[in-house]
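Quick one - inputs below.
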Amino acid sequence: MSPVVRQKLASAALIIGVFVFWELFCLVAGISDLVLPRPTQIVATLIEYAPAIWPHAYQTLYTTMVGFFFGVMIGLSLGLLIGSSKLAFDTAYPLLVGISSIPKVAVVPIFVLWFGAGTVPAILTAMIICVFPIVVNVATGIATVEPELEDVMRSMKASKADILWNVGFPRSMPYFFASLKVAITLSFVGSVVAETVASNKGIGNMMMIASSSFNVPLVFAGLFVLAVLGVALYVLFSLIERRVTGWAMRKSDIT
Amino acid sequence: MTVSRPLVAQNTAQTTDIANLTSPLVRFEDVSVSYGNGENATLALTPTTLSVTKGDFIALVGPSGCGKSTILKLVSELLQPSSGYIYFAGRELGAKPIRVGMAFQSSTLLPWLTIRDNVMLPLKIVRPFRQQYRSKRRGEFKDKVDALLEQVGLIDFAEKHPWQLSGGMMQRANLCRALVHEPDLLLLDEPFGALDQFTREELWSTLQDLWMANNTTVLLVTHDLREAAFLANRVCVMSARPGRILEDREIDFLRPRNIDMTFEPDFVTLVQHLRGLIVRPTGKAAQEAAS
Amino acid sequence: MKKYLLGALALALLASSPALAENTKIKFTLDWKLQGIHGWFYLAKQKGYFADEGLDVTIDQGEGSAATVTRIISGAYDAGFGDMNAIIQTAATKPDEAPVMVYQMYVQPPFAVLAKADGPIKTVKDLEGKKVAGGAGSSATRMLPALAKSADIDLSKVEIVNVSPSIQEQMLIQGNVDASLVFNVTAYLNIIGLGMDPEKDFTFFGYGDSGLEIYSNGIMVSQKLLKEKPAAVKGLVKAINRAVMEVIADPSLGGAAVKEVEPLIKEDLEVKRLEFAIKNLMTSDESLKYGVGGVDMDRLSRSILVIKDLYDLPTTPAATAVYTDAFLPPLAERTLK
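Output:
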């Protein structure tokens, strides 16, 4: 058995072990499903309500992806802008840090006041929450171009745009794609948070409704769906990262 | 080989000097450089006068911080002189575009490009090649790059990425990149400084071959006196900061030179003489030169 | 690509075509996430009562009955289901911006003293000398001094334990406290959730039944809508009243309407919630006399004073500033049987 396989098996065993322990613990301790439902109850709930859960999951995915898309566009442009100029970097950085340190839950009610509850606040929350890591990563990738390389480029009479396009931009791509998998998870969290506060649909909203009608297994089913979607999005963007910026991983088996 | 210039087999210092004595390619007239302002200003280069003939190979040697790299930066217009004038082909620098190729100790190859694409980069940037880049990169430019790679023995690695190559191979690619756009001047700043002795000597020969084949004008900055003596037509020995040229000496060993030559008495004597110039002056400078 | 753009353009034109544009668009916010007590609003939408009045109403879920007021003030919403007391508080400082109640639905405060049926508390006066669980920072706890004043309870003799609202019922069941200060609808459903019968095993002493004269949720609209589109307000109230009366007559209609919006909801539970609200929050001598949506203006004035004292408001808004009966349908259409 190769170490990789063994390690994967161990991870799987741990996950299964946690669920088995959870199930047994609830059975033995006689815990009410109003407090902590058993995994089997949660799975049964998932299956029972699957057709009704799906539109919520779709909504959450939709707001996450749309918000993420705009967040990436803004983050990438801002990152390119402030990364390519030291002045812009120094000027904008404090503001960005300030914005990023605001807990994003706090801005949801403001978005609601501006745009009403529903899809827009979720998209906006997903968007602003993921902008910062992208900006910082892209800007760092560009700002840390080796001075010798810049001299080489300048000696070729390369314009700033030439350097940015041929060196800075591709150089920042590994940073960018590394930030994407963080950003997508943040976007997802942002969407769900916004949904719990102000939405008519989405997993966050579903969990709020389920908890107010004491359907605790459904609340947990919501958590399951969130976990699965979160992991899936992370894996998706990790794969994209490996695919696109394999050169930065310094492995000769990736082309 | 698509380089159109004639191959000069016996490109000795004397022949080039005679051919271009009247109009040096680059001329420094009382050029000085100082950093900072007012009382804090430090003089990096004392007023220096230097002429570089077309097709020449000049090595600048000296202790750290003597302004060798400053001279390269002045020629490549990365730095403005504080006083004095620099002429290129008889006109003041900046009046007309001058094409330079640069290579540093670190290869600065772009890791996301193949070796071929790395070498092709200047053709994408430098005029007049950039205007033709789109139409020619798959044909003429690729042939041009491949010919250079062939010359340095890297043709089989054209499709590889930089991290798949050894340090010596990366520097070969780096030289190709500095030469591909047929620069008027090839500026080399300690290009082999990070390589081991054997690889370095191999690359000396490679560089010599490239220079002889492409008839380029080379300015080489180096710590290595043997490297300077082996490669150059002229060695300029510079003093510690503020830098100034102590001796401008012609090296007239026959070309092509080979490594065996470096063990001959004439060569050894020359290197010892150069070393004496750098080590002699003061205790401090001596220490720096020796380190 | 061009085709899609053209298609989108055509759709946009279609959406703004005159046939649909005739309906006045109204953005309506609920007080909380979807629950059985919102059944009438969805019923009115599903059965086309809004459309009958020339309205195109969008219903969004809310984040608190006081937040309804801020949402309307911000302009994001034209109308909503929210708390009269939040209007009074806003009107005391920003009279020009505060929304106006046009259809008062809950005429009783939603707070209650919860006690075990077989326990020592038989009237609210019995709280003296007893241990009472109050949710930290909850309105039920905050309103207690007002209740004490109207029910003549000596608060110095009442021991109040601050607890998390979620365990108030359990503390009572386990005998840690003699009573809990609760939101009645929530507590009622919590008890069902805990597998007990709120009717048989517990007694709810409503704050309102004990003499505390304050109102709670109803339909409020922005002053802008009131001034610019009075006909729309009239239609909105009429449509909602129509659905409310139908649901009061048959609460299962409300449960079904909510179920249609959100299939995940537990319909039987939501119907119980709805029935409880109708019985305990909407039904009183006042609503029997003035009809659903109507108020006794004198009682409203007194309730404003209660709120002013409780929150130390800088001014006392007039009852006519926070409520108007101008848009109510005829009494006959609003009479409780």
